[in-house]
Amino acid sequence: MSGTGGNDLVDETQAGFEARFEYSPSGIWSAPGRVNLIGEHTDYNEGFVLPFAIDRRTFGALALRDDDVIRVSSAAGDDVVEVRVADVASGLDGEKRAALGWAAYPLGVVWAFGRLGADLAGLPGFDVHFDSDVPIGAGLSSSAAIEGALAVALNEVWRLDFDGAQLVDVCHRAENDFVGAPTGILDQSAALLAEEGAALFIDCRSGAAEPVELGLEASDLAILVIDTKVAHEHASGEYADRRAACERAARELGVRSLRDVTLEQLIAARETLDGVTFRRARHIVTENQRVLDTVAVLREAGATEIGDLMFASHRSMRDDFEISTRELDLAVEIALNYGAIGARMTGGGFGGSVIALTPTWLISQVQVSVDGAFAEHGYTAPEMFVVWPSRGAARER
Ligand code: ADP
Ligand code: MG
């Protein structure tokens, strides 16, 4: 029932290390990708999110060296990037850092350990080789997976003794401050802290995270990812625009962030905001409440009862935040018509994927129906696969 990875990929990662470096790794560590069950664009408003780790993982085979050289390699490419621990610790200058390419993600983890208190001077270098069945750049967070896999590996072999929350910090700093890709803590929290069978309820203001049982198997439910394969070319500008609208609304309302506003307060202050800003804020305020409601419903009644909240979240993103696309809307509509009990777009929007909470015996019916509808509309054929809530980063071997 689990995904495509498992032991085969552990063996492959080991073999990949041996082929590249001509000796054996001392261990293999891994971290998962993730999807967000509910709570979209709430992270940078200091609100709530509810992702879960998926059964697709990035594996890192690693061995310490006798010198201070670091070599990083990935099955996703042919280049082996070589640097010294001290050079990474110093941060490298702009041009050298840019030249690292994909290796900035793992090397950013090394750098962030140093920034967050690890004394890197005198630590030995290492060789690491990554392999993965998390699709890269598809919104399932392959970036946090590669960071998380290396973070747990180095935490152990370098005996750094960082706890889970500190490792989230390390990976978050790596991606934001070293790679230079602004993200909230959602991805890294899921990759490091998630538990099997559960979603992770995260308060993005405090960073506190706690597991919430999903009980999918017991309810004969599964989550189908429908990747529309469509990416909006103006997505980053639209993202910045939504962020700015949220900040504008918070400023007008005199609060630190939209986290601090109730729907009643927002409605009472309606006159102070222009129509678009009001709707942007209403999405955030109601979405935060939907995350809280989803957690409560999961605990009291189980996953069979969260379908309406998922669809309400989708409508809010479609109508108030305006980040959906016709492909995402079609996937949601058809999934709900043909068996899903809840469906919504997931991720930043303007393309990407829908998740459909579906009774297991109706999964293939939903798939066939979505495929047919996309063909009828002349849309790119979507990719669909089931994901299971899985554990966070850990040692594999
Ligand atoms: P996502 O996290 O949604 O997959 P991102 O753009 O955040 O997309 O991160 C993707 C980038 O992370 C890739 O372009 C690459 O630089 C790096 N990356 C992730 N996983 C791997 C991997 N297994 N091997 C090499 N690079 C990887
Ligand atoms: Mg990412």
TrEMBL record:
Signal peptide: none annotated. Its EC number is 2.7.1.6. Residues 17-62 form the Galactokinase N-terminal domain. It comes from the Bacteria. The keyword ATP-binding applies. Keywords: ATP-binding, Carbohydrate metabolism, Galactose metabolism, Kinase, Nucleotide-binding, Transferase. Pfam families: GalKase_gal_bdg (PF10509), GHMP_kinases_C (PF08544), GHMP_kinases_N (PF00288). Residues 109-193 form the GHMP kinase N-terminal domain. One of its GO terms (molecular function) is galactokinase activity. It is an enzyme of class 2 (transferase). Belongs to the GHMP kinase family. GalK subfamily. This is Galactokinase.
